[in-house]
Write a structure and sequence with these properties.
32% strand; alpha+beta; 8-stranded mixed sheet; 2,3-Dihydroxybiphenyl 1,2-Dioxygenase, domain 1
Length: 311
């Protein structure tokens, strides 16, 4: 082959290879798997003092967080070493929750009601979800005033249907430094629990819920198993959500009928499972997806299902 033709062929080969690489990169980016960063979980109630006392009674004393800028709700929080936290949210005035997204949950003493994931690129994530065909609201500003008078500010976007964070988590992005919003609470400093590991989400149809999460975040098929107390479970390894669908009657069916699809339990991460079980007098030990799970006394927590998961 003449030298000129050889050179042309080489150039064409390199061009073809370059175009193939660019095309493959675009496909990879389009189908990129999203890893969720759990920000916080919420427990709603009618009275903040009642919520705080319930958590204090099991050895998890929350800190006062202050009133929200909506003029309706106030909160306390239990902050962990990994910067995740449990938010306790209640009306500023008893019985005056009208106007809050979670008003129906605040009618009771204590109800797991929402979860949120953090982002540093909120607008990009909103755009990505829209392109994936997932309903998402335009970001809105929010804030609260801490007891020391400092204002904490953020942006949130609600994802999916239902109340914010009821099924798909709402997204939050800090507008002020994150450590203004959450610090490790004194009651869990050096404790065997160090963060929130999983949200257990009650769903009516497991297959439909699996499809929704895969559509939103590009996840692979989950692992599944059945637990007598919860029904059929689906877990996406490495992600903070476990789906739970009732396999018959029972508390989960009743819960879904009353509140719809929402978080039904939270699982804390632990440095030392045996130490956590001893310190908090956990009970009902089971194995979920190869990990040990045990529970705080739900009677002391006004019915809230809070557990610990680990090895």
């Amino acid at each position: 082959m003449p030298k000129r033709k050889t050179l042309i062929c080489c150039r064409l080969s390199f061009l073809t290879l370059f175009l193939l690489l660019i095309s493959q990169q675009a496909i990879t980016q389009e189908s990129k798997v999203v890893v969720l960063e759990l920000d916080h979980v919420s427990v709603c109630g009618s009275n903040l003092d009642t919520l705080r006392q319930a958590f204090t009674d099991v050895g998890l004393t929350p800190d006062l967080g202050g009133p929200h800028s909506n003029g309706i709700t106030q909160m306390a929080l239990l902050g962990f070493d990994d910067a995740s936290y449990i938010e306790l949210i209640a009306p500023l005035k008893p019985g005056a929750a009208a106007g809050s997204d979670w008003a129906k949950f605040m009618a009771d003493d204590a109800v797991t009601c929402a979860w949120a994931v953090g982002s540093n690129v909120l607008l990009q994530e909103v755009d990505r979800l829209k392109k994936a065909g997932i309903p998402v609201t335009a970001p809105e500003r929010g804030s609260r005033k801490r007891p020391d008078g400092m204002s904490v500010e953020w942006m949130t976007a609600d994802v999916g249907s239902g109340t914010p964070g009821s099924t798909l988590p709402f997204i939050i992005e800090d507008q002020t430094p994150r450590d203004w919003r959450v610090q490790t609470s004194a009651s869990v400093q050096g404790a065997p629990v160090n963060g929130i590991e999983n949200v257990v989400l009650g769903v009516n149809n497991l297959d439909a819920a699996i499809a929704l999460f895969r559509k939103a975040y590009g996840w692979a098929d989950p692992l599944t198993e059945t637990q007598k107390d919860f029904g059929k479970l689906a877990y996406f390894p490495g992600e903070p959500v476990i789906l739970a669908a009732p396999s018959g009657g029972g508390w989960l069916s009743d819960r879904l009928a009353k509140y719809g699809e929402t978080p039904v339990a939270y699982l804390l991460a632990t440095r030392d499972f045996a130490a956590a079980a001893k310190k908090y007098k956990l009970s009902g030990g089971k194995t979920w997806f190869g990990q040990k799970v045990a529970w705080f006394d739900p009677g002391k927590l006004k019915g809230v299902r809070l557990g610990v998961i680990g090895q």
